[in-house]
Inverse folding.
C-alpha cells in the first residue's frame, strides 16, 4: 500500500513538473508580458495541477486479481537465483520524510498567522487615515501603524487589516497599493498558495510557479497604482526606498509590499511597460491553453496514476483473460548447444481487444529476455478482458532432438485474491503465541504477510511485508500451519497469492 502511494506520488510529481515546465516555456515563447494575463495563466496551470488526479483516468488493475500463466519451451535454461530486496524500510523512511517536511511547512504557516495576530494587537489604529481613498476604491479596511514590521503588509478577509511602518503612513502610493490588495481579495489567494507550497515542499517547480504568481500579482497591482496616481517616478522611488530599508524574516502569510528578490523585475516591468494588442493577446492565450493542455495530456498518458487494487468477489475470479493464440518462442541464436536452461518471468498488460499492450521482463537471464518478449507481444487473448498478468516462459533443451518446441500451457496457475476474501475460506487457523519479550516490552500491533497457498489449501510460502521484528517470527510460524479450502478456477484447483494480517493486542 505504501509502495503504491509513493509510486503514484512520483508519477503525480512528474505530471506537475511537465505541466509547469511547459507552461513556463509557452509563456516565454509567446511573450506574454502583461502581468494581469500572466498571473491568470499561472493560476490556471496551478489549479490544473491540483485537479489532475480528479480528472484523469486512473489505470485500473484487474479487480485486484493477478493471474499467472506459464508457457514452456523446450530449450536450454540457466536458473539464476532471485534475491528479493525488502524495500519496506525505504518506503517508510520516504513517507516519514515527506510528512515531516509538510508538517514543518504547516508549522511555519501557523507561526505566520500568530505573528500577524501579534502585529495587529500591538499596532496603533489610524481610523481617520485614507478614508477618501477607501471611498474611492469602494472598500473598507482597518489601517494601523506598527514599528515591528519591516514593510507594509495586508491580511484578513472579513475584516481586512493594513499595517504600515510609521515612516510610510503619509505615502499615498503605498496606501493605494495595500488597499488594492484588499479590493482584489489577494490575501485569500496568498493563503491558498502557501498551503499548496506546504503540501508540495519537495517540488521545486511548484515553488517556482508560486513565485511567478506572486511576482505577477505585485506587478499587476503596481500598474493599477500608477494608473490611479499618475505618478510613475514617485512610485519607483518608493519601491527603491522600501527595498533599502531593513527587512526581517518573511514568515507572515500575507502579500508584502516588496520582496527584494522581485525588485529588479518589478522596476523593469514599470520602466518597460509593454502593451499587447487585442488580437495578439487572444492568439497568445489560445496558444497557451492549447499547448499546455497538450503537454498535460501527453504527460498523463506517459505517467498514469495506478488505482489501488480492491478485494474481488470470488465470482469475479472466473472472469480471467483466456489465451486464444500463443506464438512460438525461438531459442536464442548461438546458445542452442550450450546445454543451459532459462526461465523468464514477464509482466504483461492486455487491452480491450485482447492484444498485449505492454510487456516487460521481471526476472530471467538477459540473453533470453528478447526472445520471450518477441513471442509474448504476438499473443492474443479474448476481447473485453483488460487485465495484468504474469507470464513465465521456460526455455528447455531437448538433447535428443536438439530442437526447440512450441510453447505449452503450464499445469499450475496462480491467482491473487484479496486478504478479506481469502480469509472466508480459512479452515484451520493456529493462533500465534505472544512472544514473551514483546509482551514484557508491551509491544503490540499488526504483522502483514505475503502468503502463497498451494492448490490443496496448505500454506507453502510466507514472506513478511511489514510489522515489528519482535512479532514477525511468531506470526510466520503460526500462519505456516493454516489450512484453506482449495480455490477453484474453471473447476480446477489453483495456487493463491494473498495477504494476511496478524494482530497482536495486549489484554489488560
Amino acid at each position: 500500500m505504501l509502495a503504491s502511494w509513493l509510486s503514484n506520488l512520483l508519477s503525480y510529481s512528474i505530471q506537475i513538473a511537465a505541466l509547469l515546465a511547459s507552461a513556463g516555456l509557452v509563456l516565454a515563447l509567446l511573450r506574454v508580458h502583461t502581468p494581469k494575463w500572466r498571473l491568470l495563466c499561472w493560476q490556471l496551470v496551478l489549479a490544473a495541477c491540483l485537479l489532475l488526479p480528479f480528472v484523469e483516468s486512473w489505470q485500473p488493475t484487474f479487480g485486484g486479481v493477478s493471474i499467472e500463466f506459464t508457457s514452456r519451451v523446450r530449450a536450454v535454461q540457466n536458473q539464476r537465483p532471485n534475491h528479493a530486496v525488502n524495500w519496506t524500510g525505504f518506503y517508510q523512511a520516504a513517507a516519514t520524510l515527506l510528512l515531516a517536511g509538510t508538517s514543518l511547512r504547516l508549522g511555519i504557516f501557523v507561526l505566520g498567522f500568530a505573528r500577524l495576530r501579534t502585529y495587529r494587537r500591538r499596532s496603533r489604529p489610524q481610523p481617520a487615515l485614507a478614508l477618501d481613498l477607501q471611498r474611492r476604491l469602494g472598500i473598507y479596511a482597518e489601517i494601523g501603524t506598527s514599528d515591528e514590521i519591516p514593510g507594509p503588509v495586508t491580511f484578513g478577509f472579513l475584516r481586512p487589516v493594513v499595517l504600515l511602518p510609521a515612516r510610510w503612513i503619509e505615502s499615498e502610493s503605498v496606501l493605494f497599493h495595500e488597499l488594492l490588495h484588499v479590493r482584489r481579495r489577494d490575501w485569500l489567494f496568498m493563503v491558498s498558495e502557501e498551503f499548496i507550497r506546504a503540501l508540495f515542499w519537495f517540488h521545486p517547480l511548484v515553488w517556482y510557479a508560486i513565485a511567478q504568481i506572486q511576482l505577477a500579482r505585485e506587478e499587476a497591482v503596481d500598474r493599477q497604482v500608477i494608473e490611479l496616481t499618475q505618478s510613475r517616478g514617485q512610485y519607483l522611488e518608493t519601491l527603491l526606498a522600501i527595498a533599502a530599508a531593513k527587512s526581517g524574516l518573511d514568515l507572515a502569510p500575507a502579500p508584502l509590499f516588496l520582496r527584494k528578490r522581485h525588485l529588479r523585475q518589478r522596476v523593469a516591468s514599470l520602466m518597460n511597460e509593454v502593451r499587447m494588442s487585442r488580437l495578439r493577446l487572444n492568439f497568445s492565450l489560445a496558444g497557451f491553453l492549447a499547448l499546455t493542455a497538450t503537454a498535460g495530456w501527453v504527460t498523463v498518458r506517459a505517467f498514469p496514476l495506478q488505482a489501488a487494487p480492491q478485494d474481488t468477489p470470488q465470482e469475479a475470479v472466473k472472469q480471467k483473460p483466456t489465451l486464444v493464440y500463443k506464438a512460438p518462442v525461438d531459442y536464442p541464436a548461438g546458445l542452442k548447444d550450450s546445454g543451459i536452461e532459462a526461465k523468464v518471468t514477464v509482466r504483461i498488460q492486455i487491452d480491450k481487444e485482447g492484444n498485449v499492450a505492454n510487456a516487460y521482463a521481471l526476472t530471467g537471464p538477459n540473453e533470453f529476455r528478447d526472445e520471450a518478449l518477441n513471442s509474448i507481444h504476438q499473443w492474443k487473448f479474448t476481447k473485453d478482458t483488460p487485465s495484468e498478468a504474469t507470464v513465465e516462459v521456460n526455455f528447455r533443451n531437448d538433447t535428443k532432438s536438439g530442437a526447440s518446441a512450441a510453447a505449452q500451457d503450464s499445469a499450475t496457475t496462480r491467482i491473487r485474491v484479496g486478504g478479506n476474501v481469502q480469509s472466508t475460506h480459512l479452515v484451520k487457523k493456529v493462533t500465534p503465541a505472544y512472544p514473551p519479550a514483546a509482551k514484557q516490552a508491551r509491544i503490540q500491533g499488526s504483522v502483514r504477510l505475503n502468503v502463497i497457498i498451494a492448490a490443496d489449501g496448505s500454506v507453502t510460502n510466507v514472506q513478511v511485508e511489514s510489522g515489528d521484528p519482535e512479532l514477525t517470527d511468531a506470526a510466520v510460524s503460526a500462519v505456516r500451519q493454516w489450512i484453506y479450502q482449495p480455490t477453484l478456477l474453471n473447476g480446477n484447483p489453483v495456487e493463491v497469492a494473498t495477504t494476511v494480517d496478524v494482530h497482536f493486542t495486549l489484554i489488560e
